[in-house]
From TrEMBL, chains A, B:
Residues 14-143 form the LpxI N-terminal domain. It comes from the Bacteria. InterPro entries: LpxI (IPR053174), LpxI_C (IPR010415), LpxI_C_sf (IPR043167), LpxI_N (IPR041255). This is DUF1009 family protein. It comes from Azospirillum picis.
Amino acid sequence: MRPTAEPRTDAGAKLAILAGGGTLPARIAAAVRGQGREVFIVAFDGHTDPETVSGLPHLWSRFGAAGTILRRLHDEGVGEVVFAGPVRRPSFTELMPDWRTARFLARVGTRALGDDGLLRAVVREVEEDGFRVVGLHDLLKDLLTAPGLVGRHSPDADAERDIARGVEVARALGALDVGQGAVVQQGIVLAVEAVEGTDAMLDRCGSLRRPGPGGVLVKVKKPKQDRRIDLPTMGLTTVERAAAAGLRGIAIEAGGSLLVDRAAVAEAADRLGLFVLGIESSS
Amino acid sequence: MRPTAEPRTDAGAKLAILAGGGTLPARIAAAVRGQGREVFIVAFDGHTDPETVSGLPHLWSRFGAAGTILRRLHDEGVGEVVFAGPVRRPSFTELMPDWRTARFLARVGTRALGDDGLLRAVVREVEEDGFRVVGLHDLLKDLLTAPGLVGRHSPDADAERDIARGVEVARALGALDVGQGAVVQQGIVLAVEAVEGTDAMLDRCGSLRRPGPGGVLVKVKKPKQDRRIDLPTMGLTTVERAAAAGLRGIAIEAGGSLLVDRAAVAEAADRLGLFVLGIESSS
């Protein structure tokens, strides 16, 4: 086993990427392979972009097939597991359990499906099978949002008040395990995020916006959220959709969110006139 | 002055109806005139349904023209004022203040625009001019939602859990002065309401719903809300949109919301297979 600069991951172990949607899983695969590590992709029907598995060893599966997935990871000699990319709440059909999954669901209870308790239980289950679950930020340290500005625009005093209001609302929603985001304009909460996701929330803000200075998008980690799963994520698309919705900035929790492709985000923010700010957690 | 069965309103006084959207202002006008009272309608450009003022003494105005409106109410000999029907947050153009409004806004501060503080301040301002502000439920007692079922369908144990979760979330949002409603399905919060309104929230639930038993809509009064302004309201349209979104029921706060046309709501709920339940406030 080789020494590693990343104390929370073992660079000598084969890494399984449990791949949600978007481009993040493919980015992680490319970065990790660039470090000389072997990867194995678990792709989920209807969620993972097929491009993700192109040319890489992989398994297509349903969420409910936990037994099959874990057996395959053992067979492949996987040592570490990472959850990458958003997974919209799976439907019951997708969760249709095999024997292993049924035993798991019976233990955690189906009511847990409504909250992060499910994801935390999944992490525990994978760890009890002998795998090490690592966070995306353990693999790519510069993925975690740093405090401070990205790009050259910065919020004025009004925008800072909107950010504070957005943090208050998003944190309260997060404490209830509802969502991670809110949009605030001139003190008015235009939209709050539940299962529709940030993109859909931003899209409806286009018609809800008021005249005058635009709103801000705020995303924070849920207070009890395990940083290894489903951290708030933003990238180029978020900036573009925020601009299309007439917003003038984005504030995301430093150390509690992922910033995908910082250079592209900074370029787009500068070009579109938005500020992007990593805000310190108050807790 | 005649004696009245309604201690909180003076049936001998002329009533000004500050009319928001929908059919509620016209219903109130018809009911009050049926009791032999005189009414005067203040209609707002772009908000009030033109049908509302048909055949009735009225004034079309902008929100910002508080001076003009209050002078006219004095000239008309108005004694009581009621706020009826939803008003989406007015734009800044609509609020463009006359001298009286400017003095008012300067005193309450424009940051109050973001919350119910504005509406409370408007009520105080109208009262300081010598008018009595009454609630819709003071005029039409059976408009206030009663505890218990409307129609013949009732929630099962799963739906009751979804209601409890919805109340928890909607109340927290209300405490933050964000919104009054949430939709919960199988323990998952599908949507939470901000400025888009209940109808728009229901419409997006159609594509967010999961297979299996449908969700429930929960609406509660904001904890600090004055019952004379902007109570959560439901009527026939709410039932029809909830059914179209695949919901199986609606729970609204008894004593803290308005049920418009109870007979039509019961008929539609029975026909469409939804329960409608007035729930007791826990506070």
